[in-house]
């Protein structure tokens, strides 16, 4: 059996560990031949493949990024795209199936290709931890560790200057990174997309922390929406969430907090630092286990399925489980943390 492996969508610490896991088990236990597909679905469409042996994956579990490269190409777009063309390309290279490692967009494309008769197995990936199909996704723990470390550092400089520090973390649609890093670092305010807050509510929590003699620490997900945002900025004649002109939500909040509290406030956007570098030990283990189980799934021809973590087990689930509604932070989890704010 010959299998092409691709990574697609945003990169994520642990991608290389999945690749290593599947190649080691697949070659040794099942005699599967692997090829790497360069830059996600772009490589499938262009037939951009290279041999992937035990040698290429040596020592990879600790290496960040992806040795395959990644892109956000949609396999159904472009003149060489579409199931029929892809099928011909795979047939021409004698490739029997694809292992697609990616997030919601990747898995939606994988599902469609699978329904169109192409052999695909998936591995879910998201540092945001927003896929319903899996209890935890590799990359999330690393991102939380990086964000926590960054906030610990913001804390000491904030304390020294008696400043309010605002940390903007990743999370386009859900607030898992902000919630976990916020709890870990002891943030005084956690702003996530699932729980809209007004600037007055944020200011109240900042002021309470300040009155207790603390340098307030605010963590905000990039996808957080402020209640009454339009009104707050209307006096400046600016549209709310006009990112090119105003920067991200962290940079929008900081001057408002400073203006309304009188506390000097600084914003830090952690950005892609959260996605770079080595995966944490937890993510290396999770990603490796997903890779090992993906090798079993390939051997057994479980096409149209993906491997996922449920509890502490790795199971197989249909692609459909990863699509549609996102895994957002339930209110009770937010309220748990809110008890810490004082
Ligand atoms: O979905 C993962 C993620 O890291 C989000 O948290 C973030 O909004 C987005 O990707 C950034 O994407 P890009 O790397 O394309 O700027």
TrEMBL record:
Chain residues that bind Mg(2+): 104
Binding site for ATP: 10, 72-73, 103-106
Active site feature: 128
Residues flagged as site, Important for substrate specificity: 105
Record-level GO BP terms: canonical glycolysis; fructose 1,6-bisphosphate metabolic process; fructose 6-phosphate metabolic process
GO molecular function: 6-phosphofructokinase activity; AMP binding; ATP binding; diphosphate-fructose-6-phosphate 1-phosphotransferase activity; fructose-6-phosphate binding; identical protein binding; metal ion binding; monosaccharide binding
Pfam families: PFK
Enzyme Commission designation: 2.7.1.11
GO CC annotations on file: 6-phosphofructokinase complex
Main localization (coarse): cytoplasm
Pathway: Carbohydrate degradation; glycolysis; D-glyceraldehyde 3-phosphate and glycerone phosphate from D-glucose: step 3/4
Compartments (UniProt record): Cytoplasm
Chain sites annotated for binding substrate: 126-128, 163, 170-172, 222, 266, 272-275
Functional description taken from the UniProt entry: Catalyzes the phosphorylation of D-fructose 6-phosphate to fructose 1,6-bisphosphate by ATP, the first committing step of glycolysis.
UniProt family annotation: Belongs to the phosphofructokinase type A (PFKA) family. Mixed-substrate PFK group III subfamily.
Quaternary organization: Homodimer or homotetramer.
Protein name as annotated: ATP-dependent 6-phosphofructokinase
Gene source species: Microbacterium testaceum (Aureobacterium testaceum)
């Amino acid at each position: 059996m010959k299998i092409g492996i691709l990574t697609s969508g945003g990169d994520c610490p642990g991608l290389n560990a999945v690749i290593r896991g599947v190649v080691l088990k697949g070659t040794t236990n099942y005699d599967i031949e692997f090829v790497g597909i360069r830059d996600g679905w772009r490589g499938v469409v262009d037939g951009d493949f290279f041999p992937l042996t035990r040698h290429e994956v040596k020592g990879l579990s600790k290496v960040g990024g992806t040795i395959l490269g990644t892109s956000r190409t949609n396999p159904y777009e472009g003149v060489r795209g579409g199931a029929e063309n892809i099928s011909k390309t795979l047939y021409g290279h004698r490739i029997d199936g694809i292992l697609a490692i990616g997030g919601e967009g990747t898995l939606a494309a994988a599902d469609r290709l699978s329904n169109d008769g192409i052999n695909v197995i998936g591995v879910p990936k998201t540092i945001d931890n927003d896929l319903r199909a899996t209890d935890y996704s590799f990359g999330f723990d690393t991102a939380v560790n990086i964000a926590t470390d960054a906030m610990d550092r913001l804390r000491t400089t904030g304390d020294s200057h008696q400043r309010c520090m605002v940390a903007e973390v990743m999370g386009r649609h859900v607030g898992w990174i902000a919630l976990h890093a916020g709890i870990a670092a002891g943030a005084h305010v956690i702003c996530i997309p699932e729980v809209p807050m007004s600037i007055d509510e944020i200011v109240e929590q900042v002021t309470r922390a300040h009155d207790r003699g603390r340098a307030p620490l605010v963590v905000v997900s990039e996808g957080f929406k402020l209640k009454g945002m339009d009104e707050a900025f209307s006096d400046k004649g600016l549209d709310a969430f006009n990112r090119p002109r105003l920067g991200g939500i962290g940079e929008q909040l900081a001057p408002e907090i400073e203006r309304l509290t009188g506390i000097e406030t600084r914003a830090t956007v952690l950005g892609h630092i959260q996605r770079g570098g080595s995966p944490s030990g937890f993510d290396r283990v999770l990603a490796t286990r997903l890779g090992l189980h993906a090798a079993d799934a390939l051997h057994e021809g479980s096409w149209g399925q993906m491997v996922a973590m449920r509890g502490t087990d790795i199971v197989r689930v249909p692609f459909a489980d990863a699509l549609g509604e996102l895994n957002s932070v339930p209110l009770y989890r937010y309220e748990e943390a809110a008890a810490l704010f004082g």
